[in-house]
Amino acid sequence: MQHFLDFNQLSDSGIEALLKQVLEYSHQPADPGHRQILDGRVITNLFYEASTRTRVSFEVAAHRLGAEVINISAGGSSVEKGESLRDTLETLVSIGVDAVVVRHPQTAVLNDLVVEKDIEIALINAGDGCGHHPSQALLDAATLITARGSLVGLKLVIAGDIRHSRVARSNIQLLSRLGVDDIRLVGPKQLLPDECPQNVSLMTEDFDIALADANAVMMLRIQHERMGGLELPDTDDYHRRWGLDKARLMLAHPDCVVLHPGPVNRGVEMSNAVADGSQSLIRSQVAMGVSARMAIFDMLLASAGAGQR
Ligand code: CP
Fold it and tell me: Do both 92 and 32 map to the same domain?
């Protein structure tokens, strides 16, 4: 069974084919002709953590391809009675579900499961703890390509809580595979990784230095739910040093675009003027999320895993 857990499951040509399919769907995402692609298939969203964008866009994507969708939240399901993720997945296999989209607070929970046992259902990672969020990185790359024409020469700053960010990890993994060689990380010391990750050109606490000549900046939320007792600057101090406002954005290249995976904490990681300004791609990212998730379902369920390693 083929799964979509992180970009290690995909060859370079597989990544290119997937991205091409995202961009194709983005031209006509609601074309009624798409409804035959997954006609008769059943997809379950199984979310153990809160979500708006990811859960709803996976649901809309599945509907647009003609699949039936069942939503399960941990609260209100047999998870509350102590059922393990593995037993829940095996229950869904027996019911006849074809694919399960899973968001879970435990890092690598799906990778560990598929190593332990062959799971007879396509698993899609919708965010695992501090691990990966590959569908977010896919929609981010497609949004950047659509806005800029290509990723060639991109100088990207990722700012905020990098230490706990599955979005940062998946973007570094995907964008470096796509040839982006200038990725800079910035944030307070306690929210940066202990070591500079592979394929990152700069890691600093100084936002103004990181922004020099940048043409994309991806802002991240502080993930209070994963802090585990880390001391943080207060909100005003954080915004002053690591928040993005109009004045700071002017330190970047004039063509610089602004991304945020959401949910945005306005006044903390960015000002209203930046979130809603002409350089913001936040709404385009959300729209691209549906096309990205259609392409993932298509790859796993319609194209029988073409392009996978
Ligand atoms: N970007 C993202 O994962 O948003 P949600 O938590 O709302 O799904």
Answer: yes
**103 C-alpha to ligand 1 centroid (Å):** 10
Whether residue 197 is contained in a domain is answered as yes
Q: State in Å: Cα 250 to ligand 1 middle.
A: 28
Same domain, 171 and 245: yes
- pLDDT at 307 (0 to 100): 41
Question: What pLDDT score was predicted for residue 303?
Answer: 62
Q: What stretches in the chain show pLDDT beneath 70?
A: 1, 303-309
Q: Tell me if 134 CB under 6 Å of ligand 1.
A: no
The burial of 50, by beta-carbon neighbours within 10 Å (0-12 exposed, 13-18 middle, 19 or more buried), is given as: exposed
Together in a domain, 108 and 43 = yes
**68-73 and 42-47 beta bridge pairing:** parallel
Model pTM?
0.95
Q: Does residue 309 sit within a domain? A: no
Report the nearest-CA residue for atom 1 of ligand 1. 261
Other beta carbons within 10 angstroms of residue 291's beta carbon come to 26
Beta-ladder partners of 180:
none
Q: What is the tally of structural domains in the chain? A: 2
Look up the CATH number of the domain holding residue 175: 3.40.50.1370
Domain that holds residue 188: 134-278
Strand order in the sheet with 182-186: 202-204, 182-186, 155-159, 216-219, 257-259
Nearest residue (by CA) to ligand 1, atom 6, is 51
pLDDT at 308: 47
Whether residue 132 contacts residue 166, with contact meaning beta carbons closer than 8 Å, is answered with yes
Same domain, 146 and 214: yes
pLDDT at 278: 97
Say if residue 142 is in the same domain as residue 253: yes
What pLDDT sits at residue 223?
A: 84
